[in-house]
Amino acid sequence: MTERKWINYFFGTDFTPVAEALKSIQVDTVLKDDTALGMVALLQEIDKGEGKDSWVTDDVSVQWNLTDVHVCYNGVNTPDLPTNSKYSHVLMLMFPEGSMAPTGKVCLQYNLMEV
To answer: The pTM is what?
Structure first.
């Protein structure tokens, strides 16, 4: 699969139910230990695709592993991002070299609730 396909893996997926947790994740965070486990829980709650039950956090797996994944963007959705424009915000994950699935970048799209 190409990076472009993975970056759009969640194109139709709404992460708004976990928006409060997503918005608190800082850019340049590298997922390890508790942060990786927390992201696994969020993905398992929302993911309806082929990886739904496959997300892991370990030092061995090259598929669906969130250990050492880098948060490279978390902010306002813009037209230059490969995302669904109906979402106001995007958290972009960059998977490390050697990852077999997903590869490259993956976007999680969400809307912040107005108070």
So the answer is: 0.90
Could you give the number of structural domains in the chain? 1
pLDDT tens digits for range 59-86: 889 999 999 999 999 999 999 999 999 9
Any domain includes 30: yes
Structural domain includes residue 44: yes
Instruction: Identify the CA nearest to 10 among candidates 36, 42, 58, 38.
Output: 42
Domain, as residue range, for 77: 3-110
Residue 115 resides in a domain: no
Structure tokens at 5: 């396909």
